[in-house]
């Protein structure tokens, strides 16, 4: 596992377009989430220990913020030929096992991950109602031990965005396994 940090797409960048198949049998585009007050796009996968460790926290945050109009979407950009655990079939199994309350999309071409300048799993991007990037950073300050978390960065960012405030803290890059790019 190669530890990689998020590159930090510039704040204010418009959300790049996507049209990707999901584990629920539907195809989602950026427009599918047009009514969301905030859109959380998470590049993740099935096999990365960082991504696995964050799943329950992401599920919890998606459920907590759904009533406030925040929509989460997870995108797996990894090369399934080299990492079969990340195949679309295994994504379907994972989404069902974990009961993901958000769409889990497959970026087989990796064009969407490149458009977002995603670097690791998980790599989190939060866009406001106008789909301008407001946050690109970590979930919290302890990826490995949730019981030791002292700073909930993603949650604070969502609170600030929903209140139409500037971020009340300095973002810290997300870290995780490198995206498994096709050669």
Can you describe this structure?
The strands form 3 sheets. A 5-stranded mixed sheet has the order 6-5-4-8-9. It is built from 4 helices and 10 strands. 24% of the residues lie in helices and 22% in strands. Strand 8 (123-127) and strand 9 (133-137) form a beta hairpin. The chain is globular, with a radius of gyration of 15 Å. It is of the alpha+beta class. The longest helix has 17 residues, at 49-65. It has a single domain (3-178), classed as 3-Layer(aba) Sandwich (Glutaredoxin). The chain starts with a strand and ends in a 5-residue tail after the last strand.
Tally of domains: 1
Q: Biggest β-sheet, characterized?
A: 5 strands, mixed
Q: Report the portion of residues in β strands.
A: 15-25%
CATH topology name, in short, is Glutaredoxin
Mean residue pLDDT: 96
Global outline = globular
Quick summary:
By secondary structure, the protein is of the alpha+beta class.
């Amino acid at each position: 596992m190669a530890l990689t940090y998020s590159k930090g797409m510039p704040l204010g960048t418009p959300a790049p377009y996507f049209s990707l198949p999901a584990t629920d049998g539907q195809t989602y585009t950026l427009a599918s989430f047009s009514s969301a007050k905030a859109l959380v796009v998470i590049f993740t996968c099935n096999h990365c220990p960082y991504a696995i460790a964050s799943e329950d926290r992401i599920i919890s945050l998606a459920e907590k913020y759904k009533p406030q109009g925040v929509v989460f979407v997870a995108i797996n950009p990894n090369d399934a030929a080299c990492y079969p655990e990340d195949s679309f079939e295994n994504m379907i199994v994972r989404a069902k096992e974990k009961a993901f309350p958000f769409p889990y999309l497959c970026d087989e071409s990796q064009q969407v991950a490149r458009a977002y300048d995603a670097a690791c799993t998980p790599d989190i991007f939060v866009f406001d109602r106008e789909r301008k990037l407001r946050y690109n950073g970590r979930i919290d300050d302890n990826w490995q031990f949730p019981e030791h978390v002292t700073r909930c960065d993603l949650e604070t960012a969502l609170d600030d965005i929903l209140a139409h405030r500037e971020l009340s803290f300095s973002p810290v890059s997300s870290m995780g396994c490198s995206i498994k790019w096709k050669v």
